[in-house]
């Protein structure tokens, strides 16, 4: 492995883009974990649980990372339930239909740790998202694009779906997948 300031335990191109935009040098080492949640887990607990699981997986698999700072994150969209990534067009339709004309929360859990050391920080950032009422034909057109299928809740606020967002309350980058301002504050405390 090459030297870099941070290890990003994620394959998300959106998280990589956000880290680069904030001037962070990092190496990507995607975590391979089972994302099954314990029963009755709410959004904030779910994302902190999964981000911790990812960070610990990378730390345990790569002992040569000792002393390096690992960053892991997980994002979910929550209505009355947790919406993950849609598996198919039917799930994408169901999710977008549920989100339209309504308010939902986006939670991103972030775990920061120094590999091989007891220093760890885990936090959750939440953003409230207000979606415009979208017509059935617009829903159908959107779910036939590739955009919904690798994103929590079936949408990307920074993508074509952004035109359907009325407004948000909170951190835009959190909705994209990594609340960098908060993360940088927590890294300074780590």
From TrEMBL:
Entry keywords, A to Z: Cytoplasm, Hydrolase, Nucleotide metabolism
InterPro entries: ITPase-like_fam, Maf-like
Coiled coil segments of this chain: none
Key word Hydrolase present: yes
Annotated site, Important for substrate specificity, chain positions: 14, 75, 158
Species of the source: Hornefia porci
Record-listed E.C. numbers: 3.6.1.9
Residue numbers annotated as active site: 74 (proton acceptor)
Record's GO cellular component terms: cytoplasm
Family assignment from sequence similarity: Belongs to the Maf family. YhdE subfamily.
Main localisation: cytoplasm
Enzyme kind, highest EC tier: hydrolase
One GO term of the biological process aspect: nucleotide metabolic process
Record-given protein name: dTTP/UTP pyrophosphatase
UniProt GO molecular function: dTTP diphosphatase activity; UTP diphosphatase activity
Reaction catalyzed: dTTP + H2O = dTMP + diphosphate + H(+); UTP + H2O = UMP + diphosphate + H(+)
Subcellular location(s) per record: Cytoplasm
Cofactor(s) required, per the database record: a divalent metal cation
Pfam families the record matches: Maf (PF02545)
